[in-house]
Amino acid sequence: MNASQSSRHRRVGDSPAIKWLLIGTAVAVAIALLIMPLLVIFVEALGAGWGTLADNLTDQYTLHAIGLTLFVAALTVPLNLVFGTALAWLVTRFRFPGRKLLITLIDIPFAVSPVVAGLLYLLLYGRNGWVGSWLADHDVQLMFSWPGIVMVTVFVTCPFVARELIPLMQQQGSEEEEAGVVLGASGWRIFRTITLPNIKWALIYGVVLTNARAVGEFGAVSVVSGNIRGQTNTLPLHVELLYQDYNIVGAFASASLLAGIAVFTLAVKGFVEWRQTRTLNRLQTEETA
Amino acid sequence: MTITVDGINKRFGQFQALNNVSLNIPEGKLTALLGPSGSGKTTLLRIIAGLESADSGRVAFSGKDVTKLHVRDRNIGFVFQHYALFRHMTVAQNIAFGLESLPRKQRPPKAEIQKRVSELLDMIQLPHRAQRFPAQLSGGQKQRVALARSIATRPKILLLDEPFGALDAKVRKDLRRWLRNLHDEFHFTSIFVTHDQEEALELSDQVVVMSQGNVEQVNEPTELYARPDSRFVFNFLGQVNVLSGEVKHGSLSQGNARVTLPGIQHQGSAQLYLRPHEVRLATVPAEHANLPLRIEAVSLIGSEVRVELRPEGWTSEGSDDIWEVGISHAEFNDQRPTRGDLRYAVPEVGHLFTGKDTQPETVSWAEAKSFPRVRLIN
């Protein structure tokens, strides 16, 4: 009796010393690598007072960088929202040769270094590139201007929505949609009233991640933008430029904006996750009740 | 509405799911598509519904070709094995979905839709569950909602894909009876897919037995059970005892097993198929049969006592080399057969298969029946 009780309470690895050692290590690492740098950004940005921070943020070039960054994100997110949803729909609702390959190809932007991606675009669409030279003859310039930045940002962020949706849609299957079509619903009605509500939270999650990455992308953008101050400088590039100009406060001021966006994204992500688990829990408790 | 299926072929890659299938489904009848998994029954149902397209062949409803008609426009009710209820909609919204999907001109006004939904909720005996979500319902309740949803637009044809497959035995029995009543009340032309022979025989007016993409036999349940056309149908519709051997001078033998076959002219190899209820057990061999068996197991559960026996000095072709014989509880109490006892099987009616694809010949040992049972038991 006694033996069985103690064996139930003390499972393997359930030693308090190990538990607290692991927790302590995790907390220490988190503070050193995550929380300290984040704090430093805000401390440095505010180091010369609120006034300087405001001056730096309302600087003409900084304002332009903020505007351009938001503009790029505003184009990228809807594009990848549509693209990701269509792609997830395609690979989970249809069987065709090359489907497995396509699912693998979705991950290429994650596997390839963003700098390499930027270079590829430069080689292809630059003035001397295969497509770029033809475009140049027709007076279209993609690289070193905002369309190029949007193109590489779309490339780098395109897996997020699809990656979130594919497992979910695979697991949910297509029976509900089949039921809808048997009941006479049009394709659009099925998507709007059946598919979309089922994937809503995963979709929002994918959008949050896409947006975070679109705002923060550095490598690929730096290759194709040309870093022209006031023209093709996004916020992450602007941070680097300011830093190289020894404008430390200015660099940290812009960096604090990016960090602020990141913290906000995390908060939204947390909320979305909480909503999802809450819905699931509610359904489960009501089922057992 | 009659349903005609004509020369349907369907391939999935290398796999021939349906092989030139033709069928007539009579109006107002409940037809079962029965077969083991992989026999093509679900594929056939989905082709009739329009959820899958055939490689060749045609489907007609009441003579009208619907092969090219989109599933959306076929106006059929379809019930999925796993219910496929819309998980984020309430029960009432689920049932109303079909009515609200009608083109604007045919769509009834909101009040009428609500009225129809509450009628259907009453019919499925779930009026107080209207505002619940599917996840809050039990399996049987979900399937009833799925049924109500499928018939809300008053289709003439109701197709059900293993409708009770995911339910436990008790609920399944209730729902079966309920579906039968529903069918009789509304006079749909219904087809349901099942791999459960009992379900098919009990519930349907007509059974279509399928195997490997082919239709094996179509008949009413009682006829089908009494007169299976092929070894497959015989095997599939319940337990069967087989004696496989050589026929010489009107007698089938193998090892030390022997059965005389009155009225059989065939010579050469043949198989005798016997249902558990077509065989009796005796302690001495009968004049027309010597089939020694040793009792392996006795199961008392059910209205009959089920005795499993292993052939002694010969082999059976059936499952696991086992014969199964049903005896009444009274008989059991008289004889007290126990594991290890030797018994002799006495066939009363049998079915002899001779050629490869031929129908069986029925063999009856009428005189055997006239033997007083007491004498045989000894």
Automatic annotation (TrEMBL), chain A:
The chain crosses the membrane at residues 20-43, 63-90, 102-124, 144-162, 202-228, 248-272. Residues 66-267 form the ABC transmembrane type-1 domain. It comes from the Bacteria. The keyword Transport applies. The complex is composed of two ATP-binding proteins (CysA), two transmembrane proteins (CysT and CysW) and a solute-binding protein (CysP). Part of the ABC transporter complex CysAWTP (TC 3.A.1.6.1) involved in sulfate/thiosulfate import. Probably responsible for the translocation of the substrate across the membrane. This is Sulfate ABC transporter permease subunit CysW. It comes from Marinobacter salexigens.
Automatic annotation (TrEMBL), chain B:
It comes from the Bacteria. Residues 3-237 form the ABC transporter domain. Keywords: ATP-binding, Nucleotide-binding, Sulfate transport, Translocase, Transport. PROSITE patterns: ABC_TRANSPORTER_1, ABC_TRANSPORTER_2. Coiled coil: none annotated. InterPro entries: AAA+_ATPase, ABC_SmlMolc_Importer, ABC_transporter-like_ATP-bd, ABC_transporter-like_CS, Sulph_transpt1. NCBIfam families: 3a0106s01. PANTHER family: SPERMIDINE/PUTRESCINE IMPORT ATP-BINDING PROTEIN POTA, SPERMIDINE_PUTRESCINE IMPORT ATP-BINDING PROTEIN POTA. This is TOBE-like domain-containing protein. It comes from Marinobacter salexigens.
